[in-house]
Design a protein that fits this description.
The complex is a heterodimer of chains A (375) and B (465). In chain A, helix 4 packs across helix 12. Chain A contains twelve helices and five strands. Chain A has 375 residues and is an alpha+beta fold. In chain A, strands 1-2-3-5-4 form a five-stranded mixed β-barrel. Chain B is an alpha+beta fold. Chain B has twelve helices and 25 strands. In chain B, helix 4 packs antiparallel against helix 5. The interface between A and B is large, with 35 and 41 residues.
Amino acid sequence: MRAIGSEFYGDDCRWFIGVVKQTGDSRGLGRVRVRIFGIHNEDTTKVKESDLPWASVIVPVTQGGVAGSTQPNGIQVGAQVFGIFLDGKASQSPLILGSIPHDANLRVIGNEPADQFAVPRPSTEEPIVKPGDSISIQDRQILSEAGVSPLPGIAEAISADMADILNKSKPKGSPSLRVNLIGVNRQQQAYNYLKNYFESRGSISDPGACAAAFVGNFMNEAGKTLDPTSRPDTGEDALGIAQWRTKDRRDNLKAFAARYNTTEESFSLQLAFVEWELEHGLHVSRTFNRLVLASTLLEYTEIVLACYETPNVAIDYHEESSFLNHYWAVHGSLGGIRAAVARSSRQSTAMLTYRDQFNIRLSDAKFVKSTYGDS
Amino acid sequence: MTSSPQSQYIIQSAIFTADRLPGLNSREPVDIKGAIAELNIFESVELPYLTGTLALVDGVMFKSIFGIKGSERLEIAIAADQNAKPIIKKFMITGVAKNVSANERTDVYVLTLIEEHAYTSDVIKISESYTGKPEDIILNIFNSHLNKELIFAAGFAKQQRMKVNIPYWNPLHATEWLRDRMAAANGSPYFLYASFRDDFIRLEDLETLLVRNAWNEDFPYSYSQTAHNNVPDMVGPSQPRADLMHVKTFSTNQIESTLRLAQSGAIGSEFKTMDVTSASFVDNKIHDSKFTLDNFINKIDTNQDINSSVGYDHNLKIKNKDIGSLNSKVFSNVVSSSLFYKEDGVTPIAGYHEESRQEALYKLKIKSSSLRAILINNVYSITVPGQVYLVEDLDIGVGSTIALNYASPTQDEDILKFGDLNIDKDRSGKFLVYRTRHTFITGEGTYNVKMDIVKLTDKTTTGSV
């Protein structure tokens, strides 16, 4: 290929579709970083996010179009965009012409590698939404269309009537679950899946760090291989990459698996279930809303450990609910568990053990971030 | 079919292997040297790999037994004689180009060959980000994807560190794209090439090639029966036999075309570039008085005797204007600058097109492209005996320069009487070897090299640089 190709640049036009990965152009031109399908490797070890080009974005003629008149264009991380390359096949200079609306709830696409545990079995019709669960954005939309308008705010719980409406609105039969697993091992696959999910939500300030915190925690729950069939040696009924243990969560996992007509020991299903938990029920307020307020790997790791995983050592330390209240009230605002231990030499064995657990998980989260994410 | 005792070369071995035949590989090697009727190996200063063809005379049902799937390996060792150190080339067989039945029991297959790293390159695509000077990135791609060693013998390219995202291209396509981006400080274009004489890939600029002495400057190739007869026999690599310096054929094809150069945009062109990030505009003009090959060579070596036979006639006037001042082509490009930043998000890194904002660098790129086009405007083809190309440690072949004297027909009695050469200056001088075809014919025992050469200077010797 010659750098100087056709006589007129318009003869070399090449179009693309991509996903916005970063906004906040330091030049104030409204440009965005975009990962382009078929050009930039989905493997972030090959093309890191910091390697992606800042693409110019076409704006309406209602803007001045001269230097200094640029207004925010409103495009967000996770937006699916259409554009052309200004340099044709060299494909280094993208220009975005617009975005393509999409439904993130239909995002479970792609091909799951053959999973030896994904044995089809009869579907059960267990309800997936229960009274007392938190209301998700999607739930609000369904309820609104049904003539029920819950009050604004995430604290409101789903009533029995609402649960009935929502469960009836869910697709009948057994929808297929197809999760796009990208990566050479389960660590990388989990990282990419969760990172994409957090990016699509738009409210997590560092989706990569947040995903790494989850994977780092999972590595200490189900081993470095993230074995989805992992169960504790103690004989407890816990399972999978997050070692879901309490009855409610185990029941939800079973129902979730049944809904998709697959086994709860499927790695893909468990990843999708993590996303489901963060969107429904207890973990919306307990975990997801705290993740929204965090911004560093340390903070994400601490939230996942304390709120999402809540390992046995925490229960030993206090009752689970009082642990959380105490934890966030006393330690969360004062630098977390490491600072808590540092503040006093008189800590319980459980507290020190918990601190050690945290340090290991933080170390693994850092490994995940540096290995599979941006450096 | 083995080489005769008088043969000008010997194929010491031609080992055939295939991954699908592991037993074959581990047992006695299958040596097909005896079945080779003709071998052609092609090299070009434009290509970082060799290709070839091999005529295989199959009288023992070789193809029926082993099959040819275009996935086999062939390691050929060729030497001047049985005791000489051979040149070893490793090829992949890419297919059967032709099959002819010689008789009821014998088939002739013409197999196509390509070096293994080029085969590898054709079956993988890369989508990776690289940051560095173009030569560093090329080196990196060769090391990481093609397991080939690259010799960078030239001066560094003028281009700055850049970040590029290779958009799912095969590695050799990517390195060619990057090479095309390179230009030395004087506008010298770069060449990325493989050669018959060794296993290295070379990345060299035109100046590096030009300043090399012709390897035969004391014994120029001669296209003249008279000169051939008057030169005493010489032996050894430093004094090759006179018959080895005799040019067997000399031909030209589509040369000296100023119009074609103009049509290709090498002269009299305008290059416009718009940067959408800054809305800035750069306009460059290619004008022959500054960018011709002869001027370029003169600057490198002021001791040369350049005349109009190198390059083209830049005195041509069309509508009372120098041809270089006209617009034979108007190229327009649109690029974006400031595409990339370092990890800190503040410090910019140049992209592939970044120098469009730096006029001096952009001119270099255009000058480089122009010089390259002018260089290959006058290509001569010669055929010479090949034995000297098998001599160990003689650094010759593509990328090297040769001295050549072309004797014009004459009626001058003094010249005829004393056997002097009536040198045709246009067709004599120092030439760059651009492409070669090494042909080994078993039945005749001959080894000839057909070369495409391009004129550099009128003199066969090089002055100080």
